[in-house]
Each structure stands twice: as structure tokens, then as C-alpha cells.
Predict the 3D structure of the following.
Amino acid sequence: MNSFLGNKLEIKGLVAVLALLFVLASGANAKDIVLAHDGHSDYTIIIPLNATKAEQKAAHIFQSYFKQVCGVTLSIKTESGPTGGNSIFIGTDRNTAVYFEPMRSEREFVVATQAENLVITAQRTGTAILPAVYYFIEHYLGCSKPSNVPAIVPEKNEVTVPSILQVDVIAPFEYAEVYEPMEADDEFREWHGMDRFEALWGLWGHSFNKLVPAQVNFKTHPEYYALVHGKRQATQLCLSNEAVFQMVVAELRRRMKDDPDAKYWSVSPNDDNGYCTCEQCRAADAADGGPQGSLIKFVNRVAAEFPDKIITTLAYGYTHKPPTVTRPASNVVVFLSDIDAYRDLPLRTSGSAAGFRHDLEGWQATGARIYVWDYITEFTNYLAPFPDQNTYKDNIAYFKEHGVKGILMQGSGETYSADAPYKTFVAASLLNDPDADLAQLTNSFMTAYYGKAAQEMMQFQETMGSKLMMSHHRLDIYGNPVNEWSGYLTTDAVDRYSGLFERAYAKAEGDKELTARLVAEQLQLEYTVLQQARFFGIEPHGIFAQHGPGIWAVRPELKKKVDEFVVNCKKAGVKELSEGGLTPEQYKEEWTNIFKAGVTQNLALGATVSLAYPFAEDYPAKGNRTLVDGNPGYNDFSYNWLCFYGTPMQGTVDLGKQIKVSRVSMHFLDDPRHWIFLPASVKVELSTDGTHYTTVDEGPMKEEDEHYDIAIKPYGMELKVPQPVRYIRVTANNRASLPDWRQRENKKPMIACDEIYVQ
């Protein structure tokens, strides 16, 4: 059975049990109930006299789809007394002819028959009546809603349901969200029983600065904020300050008055480090084994002021560990992040998730009400292939086994990303039924969404997933498709994937909607090719082709590819290509600048480079030759830059023979968000024999004030008179420590250099 919602069945009530036993014992199939036949129906939709908005909406949804399927418009009436004739009860609040036990959860619904009536019901304080109606529409009308596209609706001459039917569905989690653009489609979200934080949260996510904004209070009341390295800083709040507590409570009261229906309210640290180390906060932390102590104590105090609300907080960054003594209050939700884990293996077994597993078990032991903040996209490159869906089933099962009550699977949010429709469907289905079969879900989606091209798209997913496993590469939410040039995104692999799309396009010929879906899906391959072209540069598959000694020109097909890519991004709904906010238009501007810059002449091109200290192994680029490969670094530090973490960069370039040199220059990346800073100082030395060096330039580089934008800064020196040189040694010294405004435990300053030009 096609399972968009999942159907954990329970038989409830003595009458239903006896009826089922009778059918099983007799071995006979009871005659189906006919709701409509040949354009006619004897049924009426009945809703409660005081129907909620959700019940009224559910009734009209049922009415609409019923008409689309069989051409019959059912009337909608209120339940104001005894009802004669055949009825379809939606959201009934009284015992009609069916015996129901009280609903155990706001996320439970029942679809049942008794005599000739159909009943679809749920607890009236929630909105489960909507997925209940969609459950019926899918399973008994045969409709499907695979993504944020119009539902697929068959035409039927007859609509029937089993005469003995009682389906009881209880969603396994009290909160479930897949944060992808598909969730903006209300029908898709309600059909699949998904939540949306905008609808439930009065205050969401990192909230300290929203509750006590530093831009308003820090200058006049620095004591409200964290004491870090002996100095008050606006990184976090001082949670032992009574005035801060009173301000937080007052601000929450004000917001709750404006938004009385909101269920959740976040009291959570900013997305930064720098927690308070004043005497009182340190004492609270010491009692609970770390800075989570003062946080949970503070949040519990706030929660006590609002016993009818749910206060959420984040176990993330410096607060990821559970407190050793303090227990979260019953109306506190702890949102635990698994951000540090790679995504190629399930969290249950991945070595990178060991810390998360330990934290989850620890929080579980505190009795906390735990939600998990999970991640299903590559935040640095939303359109990069990120085949992690094979881990969803095991991860969700693992969460459930450990008492997790809610799950947010964060994807690309409002912007289209690689495989977003498919991955959203799979994730939503498994959040409703963790026991669902992934292969069946994949087949259901591909058939519904890609139709004639379903086989090729299934093969595309299977092939890429297989190549990822064979490569043994890590799937990093802060990775880059460039780094997979030797993994599951080799040029040969991309060619093979593209071949599957060519076959799919052939099958879709004449079908504009299907072709558009394929074009959107293929954006991940187009993006990979473009990004890797920046990495390959003047090499095969790169940006430039050589037309003679020292003459390089942009490959003409690449300009066309960039233009088509940007156009197709807009059609697909790509608003940003990364969490940093890079738009398709800005991406095109980057390419325009790359094309204009061309290839800089370099006498050191292809020279031998030796390093005195190893580069950062997480960002290998092309190794030592990164500094002389002819390809400059761009704004993304993870490729084309050679990075040095906590050590100097000392590289010696051997030109192979003596050459007259007049200028030596290089570029350094300034990217504080990733703890990459300009060197403290740079020294350039020249030699003819590799033993005796002469310093020709040495000086400091200016330390920048607080900022978080990215810049590429040049450093160069010129000789008044060109002189013969064979060896060039460049030493760039890392700063001794991080600046006060970017402190983080276990972090050191990093240098990123590319490339060393000799002219």
C-alpha cells in the first residue's frame, strides 16, 4: 500500500474487536460500503454543531476531493440532532453509532466505519483532523501529494470503503518538521501531518538577543551581559543577574499577550560562544558540570512563570552537555543538536556522532523532554549533491528508541536545494511511520513525481548513494562538491549521472512539467560542474583553455552554462545558494569577475613547493601545489586555499632554475566567521642556492576590527632591480590568539593562502 502517512493500526472498542474476530473466523470478506457510484451518492458530510476551524476546513477538503474523484458534490451539514440516512462524520464530538475511547494525543486520529456510516475523527483541541481526512483521501480515494505540486487525483466511477474498518493512527512524535521549501505548501504539510515552527513558536531559535537586545542595553548596562576573559561582552546574557531575569519575563509576557495562541517560546543562547564566567554564573555551572548549569536553572525559573506555556532551550554549542544535578522542568523542552556529526553513516554507528549519542543518553537520564535538531543539507552549498537519505530511517528509529519527543530535520528552509522534493517526502513519511520501507517510499515518490522518468531518477539516487559508500568519504553539512572531485563526484561519475538525465529527458519529451522537474533536479550536477571548474582552473575540466604559450581564454561553453544555470535556479525557486545568503544573481556576478580577471601570469606556475609545517588536513585542496597551480582562491576557504591552523605558513618555491624576478605577491583570506584571519606578519626571502637566503621584505599585516564579511587581501613586494632567483621562501605567521570578539574554546587562528605569484 502506498504510505504517505503511515498506518499503525489499532482496534479499539469491544464492538470493533468482536466484529473483526467474526470476519477472521468466518474467512469471509464483508461487502464494501459504497459511498458513491455512477455519479450518485446517498451520503452527507456531518460536522459538529460547534465545529472548529480545522474541522470545517477538513470537511471542505473532503468534499472537494470527493467531487474531483467521482464527480459528486456532497452536502455539508451540522450535527444538531439525530441524523437520518448515511453519513460521513468529520470531527464528530459525540457517540454516533461508533464506540470511541477518548483520544490519547492531539496527534491521534481514527478512520472507522460502523453500519453504513464513515467516521473521521481526532481530538478537537488539535489539528489532527486534517491529516486524518488526507489519510482517507490518499488510501481510499487514491490521491497522492508527493511534493508542493498539485495533488494527483484519479477519476473513479465508484468509491468504496471496507464495511469493517477501524484505523487508529498515533503520530510517533509530538512535533515533526522537515524544514524545506515544500513545507510552505499548507496542503503538503497538512497532508503529511508535519509542523511548521512559524505556526507554533512565539519566539524561535537563538533568542537571548531578542529578549534583551544588546544594541539597546549593552552600553548602559554591560552587567546584563557575559563576563568573558575578565571583560563584559555582548555575546550572551549574564544569567545570574536578577535584572536580566525580570527583563526576560517581562518581554515574554509582552510577546505572549500579542501572540496568545503560540505554543512554544524559546529562551536560548545566541549563536555564539562567550558564556558568562562571573562568580555567580561560575558557581551555578560548577554545580552542574558546565555552562549548561546556569542555563537550565535560568530556563526553569522562566518556565515557572509560565506554567501553561512550553519554554524551549538549546543544547547546542557550549550547552550541549546535560547538567549533572539540575533537572529541566516539565514544561521545558530541550532542543539537542547533532550538528557535529557527519551524514554518510547513521548516527547510531558513526564515529563522528559519539559525542551526540553520549549527550542524548545523558539528557534522557535527566528526564528531559527532548527534541532533536537534525540536519539534512549542505549549508555551505545548498545545491550540492548530499545523498544522506539512506540514514533517515535508522536515525529516526534511534531518536524514538531514546525517548525523543520531537524532531526538526533542517534542510534549506525556503530555498530550493538538491533533492529537496524527494528527501522531504522520505523524511516526512518516516517521521509519521519509522517502520516504513525506504525502497517503497522511494518508488512511491519517484512514480508520482517523475512519472515516465521514474526509473532513471531512482537509478540516479541509487548510483550516487552507492558511489558515496564506496568512496568512504564523509558527508559534511559544511562541505563542498569540489572536495568530492575524487569521491562520489568525480568527472566520470558526474558524466554517468548526466547520462541518466539524458535518458529521462528523452522519456519526458513533450511534457513541460516533467521536464521542468528534471531541470530542477539536475541543478545539483550543473552546480557541481561549475564549482569544480573553479578548482580545476587551467587544467582539464577547468575554466580556461590554453591557446598558446601564456595565452588562456575562458571556455565558451562555460559562460553559456553559467547563464543557463542562473535562469534555471530562478525557475526552480532557488533564492540562496548557501546559508550565507549568496543569491543566483550574486553567483553570476562572481563568475563575471572570474572571467574578467582571466589567468595571471606566474613564473612559479607548476614549480615545486616544500612546506615547513603541514597544512590543515580537513582542507587539502591540491596539497603543496595549491600555491602554484595557477588557480586563485575565491571566497570559499574549503578549496583552492592552503590553510594552516595554529602554525605558521612557511613555503619554499623552487623555480627549477635561476630566473630574473622583479615581484613576489600572494593573497590571504580574511574570513572571521570561520576563524580565518590575516597573518600577523609576512616575510619574503630569496635565494639562488637554497641555503643562503636574503630577506627582501618583512612586515606586519593590519589586524582588522570586528567584522564577519569575507575579503581577499593581497600582499606583495617589488625589487627595485630584477635579480636572479631560484628559491623563494614565504613565511606568514599566525596570530598568537583569537581576537576578543571571536573567542571560541578549542579554536586557534587559521591562515589561508593562495597563490604565490612570481613575476
Remarks:
- The CA atoms of residues 337 and 456 lie 35 Å apart.
- The chain has four domains: 14-171, 197-436, 462-597, 608-758.
